[in-house]
Amino acid sequence: MGSGGREDKRLYGSYFLFYLFVVAVLYLYFSDFSLTLKWRPLARAIFTALGVSFLFILAVKKYLWKLRWFRAIFGIQIPYIHGRWEGHIRSSYTKHKEYHPVVVEFSQDLDRINVWYYDENAITYSLLADFSLEPEGGPPRLFCVYRNQPLKTDQKRRQLHDGVMQLLVDPSGTKIAGIYYNNPHQRTTYGEIELKFVGRKLLRKFANQ
Q1: Closest CA to 93 of 156, 168, 153
Q2: Number of CB atoms found within 10 A of residue 197's CB
Q3: Which of 55-69, 101-115, 148-162 has the highest mean pLDDT?
Q4: CB under 8 Å to 67, separation ≥6 — which residues?
């Protein structure tokens, strides 16, 4: 399960082409725009280009990939969902009859995503999280293996437990819906989750805490 080998190949191809371009430009600069091969200017160009390319790669992973025009040029399909989302879950514990308010925050770079879930009783964080892109163009799915840490342990059902979550990102980029299953050896409940985008700022807490 991953964010798509095709995207990685496309982006690494762009890094390599950018590196070659920088090497060529720097070589011409160090050799006073001479097309005759000179090893010393070439060596300086290569090592300088490594530094420039590293900064370019860092900028892509941290910032550029979020821009709409950059995503369109390189065909990046991973949804940009970084930020705070609010919504509710419906649990098998209440036979899916009650809406329990929750907050989910995603901290995201191009090749990494962390998930934090908050409600009035617990804080949940991802142990593993990654996108799965459908080859036929289906909606992107985020799979997350999580650990739930109760804020209180005064009830038997509020105990540390692990689980799995599958989230589907709406094409509008403003809605997320999915399902979750807790480890049946720890807690037998499961349920549905629906979220709406609130903003990019992470508050790192539940609204009513």
Answers
A1: 156
A2: 18
A3: 101-115
A4: none
- Rg (C-alpha) for the chain, rounded Å, is 23
Residues 94 and 184 in one domain: yes
- Spatial separation of the C-alpha atoms in residues 82 and 197, rounded to whole Å: 9
Please give the residue range of the domain that contains residue 40. 5-74
CA dist., res. 90 & res. 87, Å (int): 10
**Considering only CA atoms, which of 86, 103, 97 is closest in space to residue 175?**
86
The pTM for the full model equals 0.77
Q: Please give the sequence-ordered ranges of beta strands (E in DSSP) within the chain, or none if there are none.
A: 83-91, 100-109, 112-118, 122-132, 141-150, 161-169, 175-182, 190-199
Tell me, what CATH number does 111's domain have? 2.40.128.380
Number of domains in the chain: 2
Taking only the tens place, the pLDDT of each residue in 96-143 is: 999 999 999 999 998 899 999 999 889 999 999 999 887 766 788 999
My answer on whether 13 and 51 are in the same domain is yes
Question: Quick check: helix, strand or coil at residue 149?
Answer: strand
3-state secondary structure of 13: helix
The CA-atom distances, in angstroms, between 51 and each of 14, 23, 29, 42, 65 are 16, 11, 16, 15, 20
